[in-house]
Amino acid sequence: MTADAIGLKYDRMFDMLDVDLNGVLEEQDFVTLARSIARATGVGDSSPKGMTLVLERQRCWALLLEHADADGDGRISREEFHRAMSGAFGDPSLLERNLRDGLHAEFAAIDADDDGVATVEQMSAFLTAWGLEHEVAWAPATGLDQNGDGWITRDEYVAGWSDFLLDEDAQAPGSTLLGAVA
Prior knowledge:
The chain has 182 residues and is mainly alpha-helical. It has helices at 5-17, 27-40, 48-68, 78-89, 92-110, 120-130, 134-143, 154-166; strands at 117-118, 152-153. A two-stranded antiparallel sheet has the order 1-2.
């Protein structure tokens, strides 16, 4: 990856969050993605887990909007998104404070059977809801299993997102969480 690997990851994430492909992020993009995740993981978007996931994505949207919407139009451009991500999640303490509950809600949806771990299949379904092709989703899902035991724990999941959002190392397990960012 280039010296601006974080920027490339933000671009990849922006493209995947822009579910209506209109070139800006809006709250509905976040809600639509949350509902897609809830359906793809089998918890359903009207279940308690699905509703919690939607609420957490709305909270994430509000936080990003607070950090980003410089022109006050209620939408986030790509440039505003970069500023928002850095401001809201740009270091480990911010990531923990501002994204932990959302990541835990996502993991709860991924772990639909409540056994405390996710399978590669469950994680792949989650990543497919983000927009990755099934064949592409398999590699990052497998990469999150840091100890190779065949299960992805909540801690491994959170660590993967930390790698994706904060780590310049292209070999970090989460660096390709949302697919290649070249």
